[in-house]
Write a structure and sequence with these properties.
Number of domains: 2
Transmembrane segments: 33-51, 82-107, 141-162, 174-194
Helix content: 55-70%
Order of helices and strands: HHHHHHHHHHHHHH
InterPro entries: Fatty_acid_hydroxylase, Sterol_Desaturase_Related
Strand content: under 5%
Keywords: Membrane, Transmembrane, Transmembrane helix
Number of strands: 0
Domain Fatty acid hydroxylase: 182-305
Number of helices: 14
Organism: Chanos chanos
Length: 339
């Protein structure tokens, strides 16, 4: 009996050990959040400065280039802020989404250009994509955008107009835009992670979230392929909550919505392309279902829902690709054991 008790005490973690593990997970989450968001903001600053310099040089503009363009836009719409808001928060992000996905669907359907197809993560899947399943996904995505996203954007405008002026004449400073984007990213991580885990509850999954997981090897357009309830609560609400709570300017909201749509497209695209964020994390979620629920991976690290992922080759490949060699070649999977 004494040996059994001592053996049990060695195998069961103590309260102190569990607290240390939780503290370590929290610290890892904070460091991961700082790294991911900091890297994204650094890239955005560099991109914005480069674009601004080239545009000002091309047009010979003086003064604040972006403020000048915004003033012209307001004059063009002659005070119709509702139309301006709808174009900025619905049309611009949606067009960006479909332009990017049109290119990806060509690659998915034809395998051309072969240079891109080399970077497919699950190489045996969607090669080529099933056209019947693709058409079904397209119909669902278009329905979600037209009949759910559109009305929600209108409702968002009403709420934000009640609180302030989302189309104010003066643009926010770029430093404030960066701060708001960081806050929006963290809020999205929190709401998406917990709503996503909720939709994986057995009592809910088969009725709602199972639709999205019909694609165990996702493609870009599948990012919005979901049940209407999920689209509202898990796709739209996490992205909307930041601008609404912060009372963001339309310029910030447009930028945030566009970034959010492009990032979720990359996460689902099935290709680990050079210089783009790694989609390995969410691709693994579609493959295994019960890992990697978040966007940034911050809360997955905190709650340990990436523990199996971190033991895989996919985790080793979960990095920014800076060469032209596909990571499936430089970090291949372990050979399957033969019986």
């Amino acid at each position: 009996m004494e040996n059994q008790v001592s053996h049990g005490s060695r195998s069961t973690p103590s309260i102190h050990q569990r607290q240390e593990a939780a503290g370590g997970g929290l610290l890892d989450s904070v460091k991961k959040a700082a790294f991911v968001i900091g890297s994204a903001l650094f890239f955005l600053v560099a991109f914005r400065n480069s674009v601004t310099w080239h545009l000002q040089r091309f047009w010979g503009a003086s003064g604040d280039f972006w403020q000048t363009q915004w003033t012209r836009m307001r004059v063009l719409f002659d005070g119709n802020e509702a139309a301006l808001f709808f174009i900025g928060t619905m049309i611009v992000p949606t067009v960006s989404f479909w332009v990017f996905n049109a290119f990806l669907m060509v690659v998915d359907s034809t395998g051309r250009p072969s240079f891109i197809a080399r970077y497919r993560i699950q190489q045996e899947k969607n090669n080529p994509v099933d056209p019947v399943r693709l058409r079904q996904a397209l119909r669902t995505v278009i329905f979600n955008q037209v009949f759910l996203s559109g009305p929600l954007v209108v409702l968002t405008y009403m709420v934000m107009s009640w609180r302030g002026s989302p189309c104010a004449h003066e643009l926010p400073t770029f430093h404030w835009v960066l701060a708001e984007l960081a806050i929006c990213g963290l809020l999205e991580e929190i709401l998406f992670y917990y709503s996503h885990r909720l939709f994986h509850h057995p009592a809910i999954y088969k009725h709602i979230h199972k639709i999205h997981h019909e694609w165990t090897a996702p493609i870009g357009v599948v990012s919005l392929y979901s049940h209407p309830v999920e689209h509202v609560l898990s796709n739209m609400l996490p992205a909307l909550i930041g601008p609404v709570l912060l009372g963001s300017h339309l310029a910030t909201t447009t930028l945030w919505f566009t970034i959010a749509l492009l990032v979720t497209t990359v996460s689902h695209c099935g290709y680990h392309l050079p210089l783009l964020p790694s989609p390995e994390f969410h691709d693994f979620h579609h493959l295994k279902f019960n890992q990697c629920y978040g966007v940034l991976g911050v809360l997955d690290r905190l709650h340990g829902t990436d523990d199996k992922f971190r033991k895989t080759k996919a985790y080793e490949r979960h990095t920014l690709l800076l060469s032209l060699t596909p990571l499936t070649e430089s970090i291949p999977d372990e050979p399957k054991k033969t019986q």
